[in-house]
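Run: sequence + uric acid -> complex structure.
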Amino acid sequence: MSSESFLASARYGKDLVRVLRVVREGSWHHVVEYNVKVLLEGDIETSYTEADNAVVVTTDAMKNITYYLAKTSPHILSPERFALHLGTHMVSKYAHIHKSFVTIEKLRWSRIPVGADGQEAPHPHAFIRDGADKRVVDVEIDASAGKDKIIAKVTSGIADLLVLKSTGSAFSGYIRDEYTTLVEVDDRILSTSVDLTYTFAPFNIAAPTDAKKLEFSVPGQISPGSVWDGEEVAERARKATLDIFALDESASVQATLYNMAQRVIAENAGVQTVTYKLPNKHYIPVDMKYIGVDNTTPSQAEVFVPVSAPSGLISATISRK
Ligand SMILES: O=c1[nH]c(=O)c2[nH]c(=O)[nH]c2[nH]1
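>> structure
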């Protein structure tokens, strides 16, 4: 064996645990569909360096725990609180596990509006996938200072929110040099697939007091109705993103991104930082000059080629002062 190398870090677990949970309130049902990832860190080095499986909580068990808590946790309908429950359960159940990392993607299932036009009401148990965007929650549970001194970090956000506007976007005034071929425009198509994450301040959290009873105290910061309420923050952040995208007279993706992030910070007291990653998905007007047709003057551009690659990629993190 080489003495030139050492195990610098190790983390393992289960990815893509897919689960749909139904919660019945009489005939009024709630459904959530999650893709769950659970990763663990702790005194697990020897499983790598000495082939010692005695320290290994199987990834199969992690999957089973995910399903068990999906059945028993009172927090299942909130991805933030369910991730906190799962993560704290892992570090309190296993003495040698000091950190857990839970990522949950929540897929959209909205109630189908039924009834006569203008008098639709949400159906009690029929749902529609009304968007490909996902709510994404990342929870980091750190019990390395002790099982009674657990610190939680929560990051939430949105992925794959695809939007396009056919005007209200310009791009000019940029560096012009020997490499610049881009033509300045006062009107263009703007399209992006929004990747948004926002962080909450770290907080202390109590582990489930008895793993069998699955008791778990929801910290005030993320409980329903508080300024930290994950569901409400997510809805406001999605609305702010869509509003600003539609309404902003965009001077660039950078400037529009900044406007979006400022609004998310302003509307959500619990949010500390906001990060957007915005691909600039290009649509190029087809040049029809060869046949005597103007399709390239911005006001005349009507036929565009969607360009799948390359795209721009504009990102930034905006922090609360
Ligand atoms: O909004 C934009 N920002 C850029 O940095 C950029 N660069 C580019 O070629 N087009 C655009 N558009």
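>> summary
The pocket of uric acid is lined by residues 171, 182, 252-254, 280, 312, 314 (CB under 6 Å). The chain has a mean pLDDT of 95.
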